[in-house]
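Input structure tokens:
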């Protein structure tokens, strides 16, 4: 009975130690991932990050390349410099 209690105690301590170690390894959000912006008209078909207007629900539902109301997250400050066959990226949805 005593060896059973010691075994359970050892297993419990090992599990708690492993959990504490994993918690310390989690990385906070980096500045680079926090500085993103929505860029409309630059996503390829099915590669948008979220809603792309009527008939779509969320990520991966855009119907065509460079759909003007579909957006993709890009590094902040780069959207309007992204060149597409239909012009530059936009910070706001564009009319089709």
């Amino acid at each position: 009975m005593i060896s059973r209690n010691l075994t359970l105690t050892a297993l419990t301590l090992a599990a708690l130690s492993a959990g504490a170690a994993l918690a310390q390894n989690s990385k906070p959000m980096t500045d680079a991932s926090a500085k993103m912006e929505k860029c409309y008209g630059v996503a390829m078909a099915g590669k948008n990050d979220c809603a792309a207007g009527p008939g779509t629900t969320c990520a991966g539902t855009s119907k065509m390349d460079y759909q003007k109301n579909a957006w993709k997250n890009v590094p902040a400050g780069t959207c309007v410099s992204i060149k597409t066959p239909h012009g530059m990226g936009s910070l706001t949805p564009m009319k089709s």
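The longest strand covers residues 36-40. Helices lie at 2-25, 31-34.
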